[in-house]
Amino acid sequence: MNYIWIIFKKELKDITRDRRTIITMIIVPMLLFPILTTIATKIISSQTKKAQTKTLVVGLITYNNDTDFRNILQSREDLTIVENITEAQIDTLIQSDSLDAVIRFSENFTAQVKNLEPGDIHLHFKSSKDLNVTRNRLTELIKEYEKTLLNERFAHLNLERSVTEAIKTHRHDVASKQEQFGKTVGGIIPYIFILFCFTGCMYPAIDLGAGEKERGTLETLLTSPVRHLHIIIGKIGVIALSGLTSASIAFLGIVLAAVVHPEIATRLLNNVSETFNIAHMSFLVLALFIPIIVISLLLLPLAIFFASLLMAISIFAKSFKEAQSQMSPLTIVILLPVFIGILPGIELNVFTALIPVLNLSLATKDIISGTISPWLLVEVYSSLILISMLSLTFCVKWFEREDVIFRES
After folding, report:
1. pLDDT on residue 386
2. Structural domains of the chain in order of their starting residue, each with its CATH number
3. Of 2, 376, 18, 1, whose CA–CA distance to 217 is shortest?
4. Which residues are registered as beta bridge partners of 81?
5. pTM of full prediction above 0.70
6. Cα–chain center distance at 314
7. Which residues of 15-28 are buried (b: 16+ CB within 10 A; e: fewer)?
């Protein structure tokens, strides 16, 4: 055990001296989400504000229908109305940005309204242009006009508007706030944890395997009076620690992004509760503190699995570049089960609890929501521990083969 600890400290010192490892393990996870959310927030806010304050040039085709809608549009200072257009010109004018949108009444709109039928109004717009702000602005005007027509219709019939409400549905969600919170963010957290745990293991694994081959230090280590078992366990321990550190720092980066830009977190958690306020950090802490500890314990055997797998590849590779090219495609393979776990209808059960990576993704959602079955949790733990031990055993056997370590072709 003492030899393993010596190897562990030696390898840990080596990777902390490597600039690429520090950037990948600490700097990128910590700064990625705050930077991305800052950029996204600035761009979205700027574009939305620009689209909301812009004076829209709107085409209007009424086909001589008797409507007050023209007066409503002309009374607004943020709209410019163009009427001398035909239906055949609509798409061309919008695509060329000559018009922002076109409102087209059906030819028999007046007759439809007089017959107490719905009057047809067509709104033409380009959704890819301004985050649908133009569509939303004009839709609100059409809805206001609809309310005016409905009020006139009910007044003419001497009816109250309430007679149209034959049923009033009252929704009562029995799910607790924690369950709603877990289902909302439960798909995001495992994605972050698994992705950064894997990438956090990747570069230390390359450096401690193929990197040592290139530097010629692996031969020196193998000639020391230490068993191969101690060497490989020490290396895997450092790699797994790097992955766990990277995942933890990535989560802290998310928390930092939520603190810096609370409007993003509020929008994300909007479905949790209409009265929830991100300023109530006590709820967030209580909802996540214990679940994150449980998830971290789940992540430990997964990190050992990643470390063993990547170390085996790194040992086999002849150079740093070869190891990197062999490991990079694995990112897609690792994230595929996580993506499947986010899909609706995929739940944690006796079968899915046995599938590595997918079981952690599904278990995370149930752990955060507080609905995890203890037996399924034990099954997930057992499955992850088993695969980590198998991968570790394979890596040890792989490392003991000189034809693998010193292969020439």
Report:
1. 92
2. 2-36+177-405 (no CATH), 54-161 (3.40.1710.10)
3. 18
4. 58
5. no
6. 30
7. beebeebeebbbeb
Containing H/E element for 61? Answer: strand 56-61
CA distance 93 to 59: 9
For Cα atoms 220, 203, 29, give the angle at the middle one, nearest 5 degrees.
145
Contacts of range 344-348, beta carbons closer than 8 Å, 24 or more positions apart: 348/372, 348/373, 348/376, 348/380
pLDDT in tens, 346-393: 788 888 888 888 888 888 888 877 778 889 889 998 999 999 999 989
Residues 153, 142 contacting (CB under 8 angstroms): no
Q: Which residues contact 143 (CB under 8 A, 6 or more apart)?
A: none
Helix (H) or strand (E) segment spanning residue 57 = strand 56-61
Those residues whose C-beta lies under 8 Å from the C-beta of residue 268, and which sit 6 or more positions away, are: 184, 185
Q: Which two tokens stand for residue 197?
A: 């745990």
Cα distance from N-terminal residue to C-terminal residue, the chain: 35
Predicted confidence (pLDDT) at residue 191 exceeds the cutoff of 60: yes
Confidence of residue 276 (pLDDT cuts 50, 70, 90): very low
* Cβ 334 vs Cβ 155: under 8 Å: no
SS3 call for 56: strand
Contact 353, 382 (CB under 8 A): no
**228 and 396 Cβ atoms separated by less than 8 Å:** yes
* Residue indicated by tokens 């649908």: 132
Nearest to 21 by CA among 164, 205, 181: 205
**For residues 118-133, average pLDDT:** 81
Supply the mean pLDDT for the chain: 78
In 64-176, DSSP assigns E strands to 79-82, 101-105, 121-125
